[in-house]
Design goal:
Elements lengths: L11 H4 L7 H10 L2 H23 L6 H10 L2 H16 L5 H7 L2 H16 L3 H16 L4 H11 L2 H22 L9 H9 L2 H19 L5 H11 L2 H37 L1
Helix pairs in contact: 2-6, 3-4, 4-14, 5-14, 7-12, 8-12, 9-12, 9-13, 10-11, 10-12, 10-14
Length: 274
C-alpha cells in the first residue's frame, strides 16, 4: 500500500510541554496533510486496479454490477473515518504538536503539495512508466539524490512496512474469495498463507520501484537542506509516532477493502457462471 509518511521540525518537542494527542489534534494534522485529498487519490487508484482485477478474474470482465460494487467498497467517507479512529488509538499517548506545526509551516505545505501532485500524476500509466525510467537512470548515474531518498525511506521503514501491508491485503483478498464460496474447498488457510508468502520477493521489488520512482519525482523541487530537515523530523519521536499511527491506520483500511473485493469477485463471478 502507498502511505504518505513525514515528520516535523526538530527541537520543538523539547520547547513545549508534553501532551497526549486529542481528536482535535488529529483533525488539525489531517487537514494540514490534506488527508481527504490523499484518500480520494487512493480511491482513484483502487478503481483503476479494479478494472484489471475484473478482466483477470471475472468471466464478463468489468460489468456495471462490478463497478457499482467497487464504488461502494472504496467509500472515501468510510475510509477517512476508519483511518482517523485507528490513528488516534495508535498515537493517543503521544504529543503531535511538532508534526502539526511542521505541516502548517511553509516547508510542510510545500512537501504535502508536492506529494499529492506526484501521486495524482502517477494515476496516468505513462507518467508512472516515465517515473520508473527516471529511477533507473538515477541508479545508472549514481544520482546523489538517491542517498537522501534512501535515508527518508529508511527513517520511515517504508519498504518493510509497505510489503507487510501488501501481503496482509493479499491474504485478506484470498480469505474474502474463500469466505464467499470461491475455491473454498480448494485452498486451505495454510495454503493461502503459503501462496501469499511466495509473492514476498516480487512484492518487495515492486514496492521498492514504486517508492523510489514516486519520491524522486515528488521531491525533485526540494533543496537538499529541505529534504534533510524532513528526514530529521521523520527520525524524531513525534515523527515516528505519526508514522506508526499512519501505518496502523492504513493497514486495516486496506485489508478490509481487499477482503471486500475478494468477496465481490466470488459473488459476482459465481452469478455470471450460472
Amino acid at each position: 500500500m502507498r502511505h504518505l509518511v513525514t515528520t516535523a521540525l526538530c527541537g520543538l518537542v523539547f520547547a513545549l510541554p508534553a501532551q497526549a494527542a486529542s481528536e482535535a489534534d488529529v483533525d488539525r494534522l489531517f487537514e494540514a496533510m490534506r488527508v481527504t485529498d490523499v484518500i480520494q487519490i487512493m480511491r482513484e487508484e483502487g478503481l483503476g486496479y479494479s478494472e484489471t482485477l475484473a478482466e483477470e478474474m471475472l468471466p464478463n470482465g468489468s460489468t456495471q454490477t462490478w463497478q457499482d460494487s467497487v464504488s461502494r467498497i472504496y467509500d472515501t467517507k468510510v475510509m477517512t473515518e476508519g483511518l482517523e479512529v485507528e490513528f488516534l488509538e495508535a498515537v493517543g499517548g503521544d504529543d503531535l504538536t511538532p508534526v502539526i506545526e511542521f505541516f502548517e509551516s511553509d516547508l510542510g505545505r510545500k512537501v504535502v503539495d508536492l506529494e499529492i501532485s506526484a501521486r495524482e500524476a502517477l494515476l496516468d500509466p505513462a507518467v508512472e512508466e516515465a517515473s520508473h525510467d527516471a529511477f533507473e537512470k538515477s541508479l545508472e548515474e549514481a544520482d546523489p539524490r538517491l542517498d537522501l531518498v534512501t535515508a527518508y525511506i529508511d527513517a520511515n521503514d517504508l519498504v518493510d512496512a509497505n510489503v507487510v501491508g501488501a501481503l496482509n491485503s493479499n491474504f485478506a483478498f484470498l480469505r474474502g474469495l474463500a469466505g464467499a464460496g470461491a475455491n473454498g474447498d480448494a485452498m486451505s488457510e495454510g495454503e493461502m498463507l503459503a501462496s501469499v508468502w511466495s509473492q514476498e520477493e516480487d512484492v518487495r521489488s515492486e514496492t521498492r520501484m514504486w517508492l523510489y520512482s514516486y519520491l524522486l519525482m515528488a521531491y525533485a523541487p526540494l533543496e537538499d537542506e529541505e529534504l534533510q530537515a524532513y528526514i530529521e523530523m521523520s527520525e524524531s519521536e513525534a515523527g515516528r509516532a505519526m508514522n506508526r499511527g499512519l501505518f496502523e491506520g492504513f493497514d486495516p483500511m486496506f485489508t478490509g477493502i481487499s477482503a471486500a473485493l475478494g468477496a465481490a469477485i466470488a459473488e459476482i463471478g459465481s452469478g455470471e457462471e450460472l
